[in-house]
Amino acid sequence: MIYGIGVDITDIARIQAAQAKNAQFKARVLTAAELAIYEQLTPKRQAEYLTGRFSAKESFGKALGTGIGRVSLLDIEILDDELGKPVVTKNPFAGRALVSISHTDTLVMSEVILERGTD
Question: Which residue ranges traverse the bilayer (predicted)?
Answer without folding.
Answer: none
